[in-house]
Design brief:
Blueprint lengths: L2 E5 L5 E6 L13 E4 L6 E2 L74 H9 L10 H11 L1 H19 L3 H48 L1
């Protein structure tokens, strides 16, 4: 199930919130929402994945039909020595109800900032952009210096890809690169620990063999 960001009544970004909990968070049919994989912000009622939680907006009412004009009737003239002309009743024109225009959808385009720094990440939240994932560069450097040089270099390359993909608005690719950097650093640390254990075992066996050889030569 996807997690969604949304804008509250004060146009402040909230989330992420699971789809089935959006209504409990105060999201209505006309609230703007965004999730990973969406190109732009949309109102909740227009997102197909949320159709079971939010209904489609009601269509505008049909225009009222034109009223018919009453047919004037002429009263019968009274029988008098001098005929008197009767006034003709003028038809009353009724106002015509104008159709109500349907509400227009307001779309807010995400704004990408040029630098991927801590200040940029704070600015991204105010510009309605998902936060940048941790690139795990520190762990990659530690792996390179203290553990395994080849795997550490790969981890550093993956960590640098996080900022590059995030600035291109490839948020899914940035998350994937962050995970790869972490995994390469972790494997480098594990390989370093295993290699150290093997080295200690070989060293102990060598010492034990040397001691045994010295004991035999004494006899």
């Amino acid at each position: 199930m996807k997690n969604y960001y949304f804008l509250d009544s004060s146009n402040t970004q909230k989330g992420p919130v699971p789809a089935n909990e959006l209504k409990f968070a105060g999201v209505t049919d006309s609230t703007l929402v965004w999730a990973e994989g969406m190109e732009e912000w949309q109102i909740a009622s227009s997102v197909s994945d949320l159709s079971e939680y939010f209904g489609s907006p009601l269509p505008p009412p049909p225009p009222a039909s034109m009223p018919t004009q009453p047919i004037p009737t002429q009263a019968a003239a009274p029988v008098t020595p001098q005929p008197v002309a009767q006034p003709v009743q003028q038809p009353v024109q009724q106002p015509v109800q104008q159709p109500v225009a349907a509400p227009q959808t307001v779309v807010i385009q995400p704004v990408v900032t040029p630098q991927a720094t801590a200040a940029t990440q704070g600015s991204n939240i105010s510009n309605n952009i998902p936060p940048k994932p941790d690139n795990n560069l520190v762990w990659a450097i530690l792996c390179t210096v203290l553990c395994c040089l080849p795997l550490g270099i790969v981890a550093i390359i993956k960590a640098n890809d996080v900022d590059t993909k995030y600035n291109r608005q490839d948020y899914a690719g940035a998350i994937e690169s962050a995970k790869s950097a972490k995994n390469w650093a972790l494997w480098g640390a594990i390989l370093s620990v295993v290699g150290s254990i093997i080295y200690i075992i070989i060293y102990v066996v060598a010492i034990a063999g040397a001691a045994a050889s010295s004991g035999f030569s004494g006899f």
